[in-house]
Design goal:
1 helix; mainly beta
């Protein structure tokens, strides 16, 4: 399985789920649902935070159970994915 370094995000497009739409890196971009499926199949994703590699993980939101992406706890609030550059 492949490892992907995440360097940009595509923000929410004001739909009701309020999830970011996708993540990208050098030469690639995937939707959130594609990444969730890829992680389930053994691929890994990470971001660089303060010189440290931090894993992107799948979480479920409350009672509804809607899956979303975030990073492992790293002591740097808030969500690292939202502070990435915008994908162009």
């Amino acid at each position: 399985m492949a490892h992907h370094y995440v360097s940009c995000h595509t923000p929410d497009n004001r739909d009701p789920d309020r999830r970011i739409q996708g993540l990208g890196g050098f030469g690639w971009w995937f939707t959130i649902d594609q990444i969730i499926e890829m992680i389930g199949n053994g691929h890994t994703f990470s971001v660089l935070v303060a010189g440290r590699q931090v894993a992107v993980v799948v979480r479920s939101h409350g009672i509804i159970g809607r899956r979303y992406l975030t990073t492992e706890a790293d002591g740097f609030p808030p969500n690292n994915l939202l502070h990435l550059a915008l994908c162009r």
